[in-house]
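INFO  loader      accepted 1 record
INFO  loader      residues=268
INFO  predictor   begin
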Amino acid sequence: MAHEDYKEMLPARALSALDTADDVSLNEHLLTCAECRSELSEWEAVSSDLALTADPIEPSPAVRERILNQVREQKKSPVAPETSSRVVPFAAPKRNFGSTAASFALIAAGVVLAFLVGTTAFFWREKKLAEFELAKLKQQIEATQTEVKHQNEIFQFFTTPGAKVTELAGTSGAPGARATLAYDKTGRAMLLARGLPAAPTGKGYQLWFIVGNKPLPGHVFNTDESGSGTLNDQMPSPMSDKAIFAITMESSSGAQLPTGAILLRSEL
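INFO  predictor   done
INFO  writer      dumping tokens
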């Protein structure tokens, strides 16, 4: 991806609108590009100002239209008359004005009650649907925030003054894979791997610290659907600048000595 492509991502990053794959790719670019880091800071400042000046949005009139449509449908529903196999004539009762007015009042009250019940049921369904959608959206936002927070932690560690960064290239066993490992003076190490398929059940990728042809075991990690994986580890002491880092596939519980072929390794 070209430098200009990453620059076009910066406004979306400032608004937290990048998907996970683009956010990871941009973080990798920011590790080595001071110009983009500076421009990202400017976009984030603009994003903060916009959050304070945004006007509220009026609700949509769709709800009112849906209520009216429901009332119209209720009016269109015919009521089938009751039939009887036997008709018995009765003398017509004397018309009573007060009784008729009371009947009209009861009918009107029934219509109003039916309308209120229907409207209440409609709004109740709408409320439950909105609550469900809100909960789903909240989960998505929390998952995205967690992923972005994790990526930012990686970015901050990789750019910490004094941290050393080493690249691991894929061997013939994983020609398209690559990884970046950073470690500081305390021995804390962080690995970012890409291009590795998910390991089979019961298996995982294990990091190795090789000093003087002696492999020392690191932790085990796995990758996601995009082939990316991260690992936090602690380098064994003592370690020298001539150490080699390698990755093999081992049991998910790890191994004390490598049993699989080296898939990625660093150079001296």
